[in-house]
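Throughout our pipeline, every protein is held as a single compact record rather than as scattered files. Nothing more is needed to write down the fold, since each code stands for a local backbone conformation. The record that follows is passed on verbatim for readers who wish to inspect the format.
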Amino acid sequence: MTAQPVPPMAATPWEDDFTGRVRARFGEAVREFASYAGQNFMLVRDSEVPSLIEYLRDYEGFDYLVDITAVDYPDREERFELIYILYSFERNLRVRVKTRVREGERPRSVTHLYTGANWLEREVFDMFGIEFAGHPDLRRILLPEEWRGHPLRKDYSIVQMDNEWVRENLGIESGQ
């Protein structure tokens, strides 16, 4: 018998002592605690993300910021979902902190909490165009500075930009 894939967005409520402590501390700023495909996450109001991440680091032992990434939902009012993945070595536990931001909104940087956030926020900026308020050096990290656009937005034509960049910088026609 082969395992069946998990249906899309089949999240289940996540409740335990940990979520109870977070809820007691942050109240309605945490909109949802859920689990999807065995991965626990919380959906948090954007303004509370740095405070929540600091709490998770200082009081819940999440000592490692694994990643920051984003998902583009161009038809939503809050176009982007930012996802912070944190890990506790002591507890061997991973948690995702999600928030939603509108186009042009500038979520606050967490570089003052985790040094590694510097490069991760730069990658999100480079690929999605999300600018982090208070970031010490927000500039492209993967693409050349002169690159136009942000390739992981769903309304972006990577082929068009790639063709232009290859022609302008390498003097050849792209193989795309």
